[in-house]
Amino acid sequence: xxxxxxxxxxxxxxxxLNRVCFSGVQRAPDAEVRLxxxxxxxxxxxxxxxxDELIGFAxxxxxxxxxxxxxxxxxxxxxxxxxxxxxxDEARQYYEELGGYDVMSLNVHVDNIAAIHLYERLGFxxxxxxxxxxxxxxxxxxxxxxxx
Length: 148
Hints:
The longest helix is centred in the middle third of the chain and has 16 residues. The model has no long low-confidence stretch (mean pLDDT about 90). The chain has a seven-stranded mixed sheet with strand order 1-2-3-4-5-7-6, with helices on both faces. Helices cover about 35% and strands about 30% of the residues. Strand 4, helix 3 and strand 5 form a beta-alpha-beta unit.
């Protein structure tokens, strides 16, 4: 796992994984992914094979003293091996080392129980329910984790 600096090489792979992992209103449009992916403010973390096959990614976007986990995805056949946890921990460590950030936040669909359990296991706590966050597809849950 690593923070990537050669972002342009990975954009097509991230877009494809985003399309495979998410559907409907839970999938960010390609234009939104591109915008954040190419933003100098956002950080992209990846998990890849030795053959440069993308297994997972996390995109984080800072807002003042808060870092938002904007998107995270792991290929279905690689789930259950804590790769999402590793991506989040890599992001947390990166922003703690940079300093100036108090919390990491994320929003998750209220029905995504597996993701909510992962985030809770990693120290995130629920702070609010976001009504109609996913438009017609339901509510979201806002979660935060304090950074040291």
